[in-house]
Amino acid sequence: MAERMLKFVGTSQAMPDKRPAAERRRDFGEIYAGYAREKAAEQAARCSQCGVPFCQIHCPLNNNIPDWLKLTAEGRLEEAYELSSATNNFPEICGRICPQDRLCEGNCVIEKGFDSVTIGSVEKFITDTAWSQGWVRPIRPRRERRESVAIVGAGPAGLAAAEQLRRKGYQVTIYDRYDRVGGLLIYGIPNFKLEKEIVQRREALLRDSKVTFELECDVGRDVSLAELRQRHDAVLLATGVYKAREIAAPGVGLPGIAAALDYLTASNRIGLGDQVPAFESGALDARGKNVVVLGGGDTAMDCVRTAVRQGARTVKCLYRRDRANMPGSQREVKHAEEEGVEFVWLTAPQSFLGKNEVSHVRSVRIHLGMPDASGRQTPQEIPNSHANIEADLVLTALGFDAEDLPAAMGAPDLAVNGGGTLKIDWRSMMTSLDGVFAAGDIVRGASLVVWAVRDGRDAAERIHGYLTTRAQAALRLAGE
Ligand code: FAD
Ligand code: SF4
Ligand code: SF4
User: Fold this and answer.
1) Is-contact 73 5, C-beta < 8 A?
2) φ and ψ at 151, to 5 degrees?
3) Predicted TM-score of the model (pTM)
């Protein structure tokens, strides 16, 4: 049955059903249900099929959104899946965790008067349907190539690159220091945003497609980069950024203060059935505690919402700017507020108080002054505005920097930028080492899954170009 488009005037925006906050607080399950088929078609039909689709322009993958919305509205779901998966390796993941309010949906032209088309939820619906119908199949390349590529890092950048290279018939091995595949999709992002099975079925698909995984293999410690360059025809570094930014405040060493990613990884591991001594001892368990999270990004949002689910007594998020100027998604703030998190805006920590362990965060109120060179208003402390906030668990979520990769990998010639991210030639995506490419957070700094996918796809294309040119040169030489 063909649905007509342009229904945004008569049909209101409807997200899939969201579970009540009281229920969500008790478990780690995803908070949104999926659309029923009719609802997805109805919501997709709200699209006005713009001649210049701003949604597509503002999607880092330039997904062909208007076309797959139209196909969904017409009930042609297999074609919608073919189209949406042609530009995105993990549409069901992006549909769940992209900050759509800042990307596709935030730029939907009907957003102004009528609330945007629910692009992310439709994208998720299309691919979840594809999985349930058996339309998502392992890769069987038309011809196998002899050349092999090593990918360091099994996060979204590495996995997207692996899939694209495998499609072209390359032999692909992914090395990761973790025991599981997925990078931050598995150990950073909590289940209530992205259930682990969604990532694990992608891993199984790649294994069925004959991608090889070498897990618990730390490149730099267990195998050197030089060795990988010997073993393979090209190497892609997709190692992400993991060095937590620290806070230099008195008392910061007190027990009870932990880095956000340690906390989230412990919680994710518990969910996966692992034994985590730091959780079992109570050090990384929020149960019954007054929890204070420092920061205003995605990681901070995940911490506060995890603490609620672990049964914290109170959960506060301290951020030195205001709601309008926070880096995290507004949708996430809304979910967190519904779940009982208190946001203390315009407040910064000054020191941590406590005898044997932290008991309070001493804070100061902030006034946002004139914009600096970057255009952001500078936070200024308001004199005599201090307060002591009760806290038995403080989680610091102040961002991440790159590790010293040249040192860690014993590769002093690997060029880096000021913040430690890898320097690449943006046209070739190659680092300063011949045949060594880089993609994802290790190039951009802490970013988004959708950008990691984009970079992984681009890197695969450049590696293919590099290897093809090299093979042609070898043939020419052999013919001379
Ligand atoms: P990663 O996902 O970090 O993967 C890198 C992999 O490299 C890891 O598996 C690591 O073990 C491996 N590795 C590193 N060094 C080595 C080595 N020497 N040898 C072998 N393996 C190595 N983005 C969103 O779009 N939406 C969100 O909601 C969102 N929430 C987030 C929540 C949290 C808590 C965090 C921390 C990030 C979040 N992000 C989110 C950001 C997103 O997860 C990252 O941008 C994305 O995962 C980057 O992908 P990547 O492949 O570059 O790196
Ligand atoms: Fe929107 Fe992300 Fe999907 Fe692009 S990948 S259409 S930004 S949800
Ligand atoms: Fe449809 Fe909105 Fe994209 Fe226009 S901007 S094509 S209305 S989803």
Assistant:
1) yes
2) -115, 125
3) 0.96
Q: What's the rounded Cα separation, in Å, for the pair 458 and 452?
A: 10
CB of 54 closer than 6 A to ligand 3? yes
> Residue 34 falls within a domain, yes or no?
yes
pLDDT of residue 2: 43
User: 283 with 368, same domain?
Assistant: yes
Per the structure, how many domains does the chain have?
3
Compute the residue count for the chain: 480
Kindly identify the ligand whose nearest atom is closest to the C-alpha of 459.
1
- Mark whether 183 and 202 lie in a shared domain: yes
Q: Which atom of ligand 1 is nearest to the CA of 157?
A: 51
Ligand 1-lining residues (CB < 6 angstroms):
97-98, 152-158, 175-178, 183-184, 188-189, 193, 218-220, 238-240, 261, 264, 298-299, 302, 440-441, 447-450, 452
Residue 108 CB–ligand 3 contact under 6 Å: yes
In the structure, which protein residues have their CB atom closer than 6 angstroms to any atom of ligand 2?
A: 59, 61, 63, 65, 88, 94-95, 98, 100, 103-104, 119-120, 123, 450
Give, for ligand 2, the residue of 103, 105, 111 to mutate: max count of ligand atoms closer than 8 Å to Cβ.
103
Structure token pair of residue 138: 């392992």
Residues 215, 297 within the same domain = no
CB 429 within 8 A of CB 459: yes
**81-87-89-92 Cα dihedral, nearest 10 degrees:** -50
**pLDDT, tens digit (0-9, with 9 covering 90-100), for 292-328:** 999 999 999 999 999 999 999 999 999 999 998 888 8
CB of 219 closer than 8 Å to CB of 409:
yes
Confidence category of residue 111, pLDDT binned at 50, 70, 90: low
Look at residue 267 and give its three-state secondary structure.
Answer: helix
Of all ligands present, the nearest one to the C-alpha of 49 is 3
Q: Is residue 350 part of a domain?
A: yes
Which domain CATH number covers 220?
3.50.50.60
CA of 8 to the centre of ligand 3 (A): 10
**Cα diameter, the chain:** 81
Average pLDDT over residues 454-471: 97
Residue 346 belongs to domain spanning: 244-396
CA of residue 52 to ligand 3 center, whole Å? 9
- The per-residue pLDDT for 1 is 40
- Kindly report the protein residue whose alpha carbon is nearest to atom 1 of ligand 3: 47
Structure tokens at 331: 């949708």
Nearest CA-CA partner of 238 in 182, 186, 304, 170: 182
Query: End of a domain among 396, 423, 442?
Result: 396
Burial class (CB in 10 A: 0-12, 13-18, 19+), 197: exposed
160 CA to centre of ligand 2 in angstroms: 15
Considering 80, 107, 133, which residue would you say is the last residue of a domain?
133
